Task: inverse folding
């Protein structure tokens, strides 16, 4: 196929990110870097702490990033899974390129607007893990497919009405070939997705009745099962693989070169690997597609507890790659300090930031942030509770661990990539 031979992304488009000029849009960067390009700032190899960066500033660990990319590349290959990491986590084309360089099949999107970003950087394989019934979005997708024969897009369907809307929009757009779709299986009380196998068959029949859509597989998201645990997740995954087998037996994939079976967030990819390995041979090769996204930076909160590597430590360990550096700006009363980072800078939807390390404003020495707890966030302040005898001065820097990568990235349009010794070697641009 053309997509097999095509470059997975545009190296030139990614390289142009280094040409962007630095200005007021990018918080945390040195004021005296105004007018430099991203590449010029990176070439100066400034220190995050003494090179003019202003607090609060988010740092992305170069070493942890390298480790996580290599680990999931190896893990996916060892478990016989293709990998389309979810791009909504970072919306960072430079990281997409790294993921593709590390063997990813393609990149997953959640909405058509994300597809537009991916296409601007030449991403040629996209799994759109959502239903698309917006006529304008469907016209855009059809135009992208028509303009690039090497572009491969797969998206969800979960209702007969949705199929009707897609068909009408694609016919009006004069789509030149069929749009590949998978039937999304859901669960009672969960998120999107068809609830019963009989309804799945009805949706598949509706797809077959069009000349604009082509059924190529089944998919879903196991973490949205109410009360998800190992038993419920594996039972749902066996429904998914059973649906694929039943569709294949019924001839619903006739003429398809590759049957797609896709699932997998960042909490249950071990169960996905286990159950997908049980799938019997079908009439065509099966693309067993995993879509985990949070792994790329991992975290110091929700995913530290959720990751399947906790259940399988012999297979590896992900490393948290984010640290938010904030400064103590006020010590108005005993036992309390205020940092200059808040809801605009740190995620708070799952867990509050975790104080991890203090850098002295007097001599630059580092020490563990023991006896310190963030108890609340205001828009631009963190409330820091201090245990008895804890020393902390106005001006000290506090390094915070963060929870939930998806709501870290979206607060920072340009993120310094930092080595263990504090040297800034690059900046990662996000597009939210």
Result:
């Amino acid at each position: 196929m053309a997509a097999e031979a095509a470059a997975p992304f545009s190296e030139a488009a990614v390289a142009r990110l280094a040409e962007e000029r630095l200005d007021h849009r990018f918080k945390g960067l040195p004021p005296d870097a105004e007018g430099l390009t991203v590449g010029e700032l990176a070439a100066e190899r400034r220190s995050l702490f003494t090179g003019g960066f202003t607090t609060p500033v988010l740092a992305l660990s170069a070493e942890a990033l390298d480790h996580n990319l290599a680990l999931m590349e190896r893990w996916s290959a060892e478990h016989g899974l293709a990998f389309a990491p979810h791009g909504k986590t970072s919306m960072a084309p430079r990281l997409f390129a790294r993921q593709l360089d590390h063997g990813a099949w393609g990149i997953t999107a959640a909405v058509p607007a994300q597809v537009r970003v991916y296409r601007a950087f030449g991403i040629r394989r996209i799994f759109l893990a959502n239903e698309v019934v917006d006529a304008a979005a469907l016209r855009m997708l059809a135009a992208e497919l028509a303009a690039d024969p090497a572009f491969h897009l797969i998206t969800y369907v979960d209702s007969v009405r949705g199929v009707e809307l897609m068909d009408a929009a694609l016919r009006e757009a004069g789509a030149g070939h069929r749009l590949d779709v998978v039937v999304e299986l859901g669960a009672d009380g969960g998120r999107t997705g068809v609830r019963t196998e009989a309804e799945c068959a009805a949706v598949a029949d509706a797809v077959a009745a069009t000349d604009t859509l082509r059924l190529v597989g089944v998919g879903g998201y196991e973490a949205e099962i109410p009360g998800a645990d190992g038993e419920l997740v594996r039972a749902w995954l066996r429904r998914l693989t059973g649906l694929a087998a039943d569709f294949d037996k019924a001839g619903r994939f006739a003429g398809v070169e590759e049957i797609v079976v896709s699932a997998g967030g960042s909490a249950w990819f071990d169960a996905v690997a286990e159950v997908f390995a049980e799938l019997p041979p079908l009439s065509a090769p099966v693309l067993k597609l995993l879509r985990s996204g949070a792994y790329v930076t991992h975290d110091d909160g929700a995913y530290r507890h959720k990751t399947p590597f906790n259940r399988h430590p012999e297979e590896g360990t992900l490393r948290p790659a984010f640290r938010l550096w904030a400064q103590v700006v006020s010590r108005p009363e005993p036992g309390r300090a205020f940092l200059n980072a808040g809801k605009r800078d740190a995620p708070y939807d799952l867990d509050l930031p975790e104080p991890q390390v203090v850098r002295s404003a007097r001599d630059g020495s580092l020490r563990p942030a023991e006896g310190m707890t963030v108890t609340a966030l205001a828009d631009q302040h963190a409330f820091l509770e201090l245990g008895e005898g804890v020393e902390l001065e106005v001006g000290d820097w506090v390094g915070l661990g963060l929870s939930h990568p998806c709501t870290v990235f979206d607060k920072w349009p340009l993120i310094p990539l930092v080595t263990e010794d504090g040297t800034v070697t690059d900046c990662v641009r996000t597009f939210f």
In short: The longest strand covers residues 322-333. The radius of gyration is 23 Å.
